[in-house]
């Protein structure tokens, strides 16, 4: 092929397959280590899995299938976009203030409730600390009388 020795072609193919395998391992570690409490974690995972798409394209080129690599090059981003779009318009209605306008109103009410609860807890803590200091003063007076 093009006057190049077959051994060199096999070496290049092997190197490309090793690179694609390393990219897949890196992407797997990235998906597993991502914080589950992160906002929009689905979008972050889709972004990380884009590395696997590139690794797939490199692997197809390495095994001598450029047509599959070209098809994969065009279909993988479309699939990722479709998944992100479906998530945005589907399950994320409960958490997305753009799609759920009543979410902003409830969040303000929740903030007021949280502030009220914090004030009550703070007052209780202050009352408890006052009571405990009075009890300690009474105990020290009783110990001094004995």
Features of the shown structure:
0% strand; 4 helices; mainly alpha; 2 domains; 146 residues
Q: How would you sum up this structure, described in words?
A:
There is one protein chain. It contains four helices and no strands. By secondary structure, it is mainly alpha-helical. The chain has two domains: about 1-100; about 100-145. Helix 1 packs antiparallel against helix 2 (about 40-60) and helix 2 (about 40-60) packs antiparallel against helix 3 (about 65-90). The N and C termini lie far apart (about 105 Å).
Note the main sheet.
Answer: none
Report the average pLDDT across residues: 75
Tally of DSSP β-strands: 0
Rg, alpha carbons: 31 Å
Shape field = elongated
> What is the string of SSEs from the N terminus onward?
HHHH
Number of helices: 4
* Residue runs with pLDDT of under 50 for 5 or more positions: none
Structural class: mainly alpha
- In total, the number of domains comes to 2
Beta-strand percentage range:
under 5%
Helix content: over 70%
| Termini gap | 106 Å
What's the topology here?
Blueprint: H1 6-33, H2 41-62, H3 66-89, H4 102-145
In short:
This protein is an all-alpha fold and 146 residues long. It has helices spanning 6-33, 41-62, 66-89, 102-145. It is built from four helices and no strands.
